[in-house]
């Protein structure tokens, strides 16, 4: 029997709602063994990120080497990378260990508004990681930052921006519409040859902390279990929508609370 294993390379969230903690919860909820490489430590809660401690790139690389040398990693999710030297270290580690099944979540800003990626690291991320990912999963502000343009305001602009990201080397782009408006939350999965609408109910709740982390981790979990990209994205969207719908059953903090990752069991 083969155990599906996914690896998250991301920052730690001390309040447990996003980052490494959200990714590990997601992997577990979806039946995948999770391993982790921590890139940064954050002091945060449901209201704010109050401090960030970036780990040395050499230590990030050492974590990657330790995990890849022993565990049969079937998929990798990349989240918060904080600065250009860490981005470069992660890209080098993926190359060193021949990892191709990569989901890139270009985490740039926390739910609270705190920047999580240095501005001068954006170009390094574009050049070093965008072409290595099976899919990149930007929300509307992140896509705009990657392209140095205004945020998309409709599906037509979302599609055009996804096409531009593919032109920069992305293999596929999941443009997330969570920051848009309307009764439905519409994401666009775009490749060089096709685009697919992935639709979920837009749920009124303040408890959306870690939504992007959870979605990208859920996609990686699907890929680790052998799903195709489209199936993995659809399954991930369904899981995240259900976890958001159940979020108000939890009473965590006084700000933007987490999703309910274990809604099926609690």
What this model shows, in words?
- Strands 3-2-1-4-5-6 form a six-stranded mixed beta sheet. Strands 7-8-9 form a three-stranded antiparallel beta sheet.
- Helix content is 36%, strand content 20%.
- With 266 residues, it is α/β, with parallel strands linked by helices.
- It has one domain (5-249): UDP-N-acetylmuramoyl-L-alanine:D-glutamate ligase (3-Layer(aba) Sandwich), CATH 3.40.1190.
In short:
The chain contains eight helices and nine strands.
CATH topology: UDP-N-acetylmuramoyl-L-alanine:D-glutamate ligase
CATH class: Alpha Beta
Care to count the β-strands? 9
CATH architecture: 3-Layer(aba) Sandwich
Main sheet: strands, sense, barrel: 6 strands, mixed
Number of domains as seen in the coordinates: 1
Q: What is the number of helical segments per DSSP (H or I, 4+ residues)?
A: 8
User: Based on CA inertia axes, which overall geometry fits?
Assistant: globular
What spatial order of strands do you see in the largest sheet? 3-2-1-4-5-6
Q: CATH homologous superfamily - what is it?
A: Ribokinase
Rounded mean pLDDT is 94
CA(first)-CA(last) distance: 28 Å
Structural descriptors:
266 residues, alpha/beta, UDP-N-acetylmuramoyl-L-alanine:D-glutamate ligase, 3-stranded antiparallel β-sheet, 36% helix, 20% strand
What's the arrangement of secondary structure elements?
Elements: E1 5-13, H1 19-29, E2 33-44, E3 49-54, H2 57-68, E4 75-78, H3 84-96, E5 102-104, H4 122-128, E6 135-136, H5 140-147, H6 155-167, E7 173-175, E8 184-190, E9 195-201, H7 211-224, H8 229-245
Parallel strand pairs: 1-2, 1-4, 4-5, 5-6
Antiparallel strand pairs: 2-3, 7-8, 8-9
């Amino acid at each position: 029997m083969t155990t599906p294993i996914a690896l998250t390379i991301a920052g730690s969230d001390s309040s447990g709602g996003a980052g490494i903690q959200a990714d590990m919860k997601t992997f577990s909820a979806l039946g995948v063994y999770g391993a982790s490489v921590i890139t940064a430590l954050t002091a945060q809660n449901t209201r704010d990120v109050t401090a960030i401690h970036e780990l040395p790139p050499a230590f990030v690389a050492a974590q990657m080497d330790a995990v890849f040398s022993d565990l049969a990693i079937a998929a990798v999710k990349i989240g918060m990378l904080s600065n250009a030297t860490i981005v470069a270290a992660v890209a080098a580690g993926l190359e060193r260990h021949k990892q191709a099944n990569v989901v890139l979540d270009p985490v740039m800003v926390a739910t609270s508004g705190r920047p999580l990626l240095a501005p001068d690291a954006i170009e390094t991320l574009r050049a070093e990681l965008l072409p290595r990912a099976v899919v990149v999963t930007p929300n509307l502000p992140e896509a705009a930052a990657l392209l140095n343009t205004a945020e998309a305001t409709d599906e037509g602009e979302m599609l055009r921006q996804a096409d531009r990201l593919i032109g920069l080397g992305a293999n596929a782009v999941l443009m997330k519409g969570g920051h848009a408006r309307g009764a439905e939350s519409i994401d666009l999965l775009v490749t060089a040859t096709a685009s697919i609408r992935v639709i979920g109910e837009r749920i009124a709740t303040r408890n959306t902390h870690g939504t992007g982390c959870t979605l990208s981790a859920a996609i990686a979990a699907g890929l680790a279990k052998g799903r195709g990209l489209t199936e993995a994205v659809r399954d991930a969207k369904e899981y995240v929508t259900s976890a958001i719908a159940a979020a108000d059953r939890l009473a965590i903090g006084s700000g933007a609370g987490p999703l309910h990752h274990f809604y099926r069991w609690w």
